[in-house]
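Quick review question:
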């Protein structure tokens, strides 16, 4: 294993100087969430890991420089044609180095930790960004990446559009927030409910709703007793999760849901989790769609973040 790894490193070090170096994207090093200051000297071959990071790079107009992305990078559709590198939390240094990147951008959860060490040992710049679950963190991530890639003005345009959409999503003063239950499902064997300190909880509040689950943080399995006691008026579920349960009918067969106000009225809002939960450049769009869907009187299957 060590011999093969050394071979990769030597191959990388030989290949890197052969190309003509591009002008630095930024004159100053950019500090990542891990405290490491990264000087970006060449943006011609980008490896982007994490769906939100990939979206930001495309939104900045640099999608043509992305040479590979991870399995969580699903938007825009063009990225699906790029080489796939698995999931960023179980990344392979060899797989990344095979793409000859001039810069790797990834969330702070990039792992295992040895991968980061191996990439930097191979003289590959690695910029780690925070995993955002607040608007402030999402804005900071966009601005940091825009600065690193020399696209500050475009980054500010993205932020301005996001903030305008979030402002439009705010309910009128005095409006009663709808009671919302957010369900994450991957088939009937995995049906969890979002509590506090989750991306789902954050977007519900941004859209003017009230998360009915406040007793715990994170996700926990759905129980009939808890669902009935929560009495949600609207159930929000990612589209892929809804499909894995067999649609709205399958969802309402889960414990207790048919007995809730949302279940009786079939008030189910299907959302695109990549759009709404990744806190990427389309966050404002997703929240605005969800806000409108929560206040709609339409029954089951209404759209609140799909495109």
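Suggested answer, residue by residue:
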């Amino acid at each position: 294993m060590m011999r093969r790894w050394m071979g990769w490193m030597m191959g990388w070090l030989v290949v890197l100087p052969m190309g003509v170096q591009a002008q630095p994207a930024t004159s100053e090093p950019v500090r990542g969430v891990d405290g490491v200051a990264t000087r970006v000297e060449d943006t011609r071959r980008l490896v982007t890991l994490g769906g939100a990071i990939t979206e930001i790079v495309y939104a900045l107009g640099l999608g043509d420089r992305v040479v590979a992305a991870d399995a969580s990078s699903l938007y825009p559709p063009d990225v699906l044609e790029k080489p796939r590198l698995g999931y960023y939390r179980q990344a392979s240094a060899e797989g990344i180095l095979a793409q000859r990147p001039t810069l790797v951008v990834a969330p702070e959860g990039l792992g295992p930790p040895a991968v980061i060490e191996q990439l930097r040992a191979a003289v590959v710049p690695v910029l780690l960004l925070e995993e955002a679950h607040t608007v402030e963190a999402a804005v900071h991530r966009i601005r940091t990446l825009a600065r690193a890639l020399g696209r500050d003005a475009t980054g500010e345009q993205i932020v301005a559009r996001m903030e305008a959409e979030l402002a439009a999503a705010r309910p009128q003063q005095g409006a009663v927030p709808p009671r919302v239950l957010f369900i994450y499902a991957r088939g009937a064997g995995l049906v969890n409910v979002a509590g506090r300190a989750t991306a789902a909880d954050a977007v519900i509040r941004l859209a003017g709703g009230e998360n009915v689950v406040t007793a715990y943080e994170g996700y926990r399995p759905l129980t009939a007793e808890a669902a009935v006691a929560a009495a949600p008026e609207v159930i929000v579920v990612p589209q892929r999760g809804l499909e894995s349960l067999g649609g709205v009918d399958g969802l309402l067969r889960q414990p207790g849901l048919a007995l809730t106000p949302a279940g009786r009225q079939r008030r189910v809002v299907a959302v695109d989790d990549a759009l709404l939960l990744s806190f990427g450049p389309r966050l404002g769009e997703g929240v605005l769609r969800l806000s409108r869907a929560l206040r709609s009187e339409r029954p089951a299957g209404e759209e609140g973040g799909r495109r």
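Why it works: Residues 152-169 form the longest helix (18 residues). The domain at 172-303 is CATH 3.40.50.1980 (Rossmann fold).
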